[in-house]
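In this supplementary section we document a worked example of the pipeline. Step one takes a protein sequence of length 139 as its only input; no multiple sequence alignment statistics are reported here. Step two produces a three-dimensional model, which step three serialises into structure tokens for compact storage. The input and output of this example are shown verbatim.
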Amino acid sequence: MNTAPPPVESHPVMEPTKEQRTDRHLRFFARNWLHIAAFAWDCHGKKGKGTVLICEEDIPHNPADMLGSFRMRYLSPTATNNPSLEGVLSEKEQGLLRDCDPRKQVFVSVLRGEHVRSYVFDGGLPPPEAWQMKQAEQN
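The serialised model returned by step three reads:
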């Protein structure tokens, strides 16, 4: 008599579409705008214009889990001892970064494996004000 459970059918995991991935990124930026904008403004003041780099693996799939701690790095082509953005950002993305107004928007790049997807994001509250709010929270 065989008492082993019947085999479980496995279904292939569907990779999200580009639109689904973009939607998830934008919702994540919106939920975490204060944190992202304050970090970007602080780094901009120290290193100049650059991009906030977030690993896609740190962005949860469930919208309810989207608020929380996650790792961020800041890459700036003008900072000393900083890796070049060449090879990280496409020429088009580098142009968008040049045109981005850090007083109003944040240039965010999401790293997925070896690929980067970049956004110019405006979460409503200007980054300098977000930075001031985060400073007030810490004091």
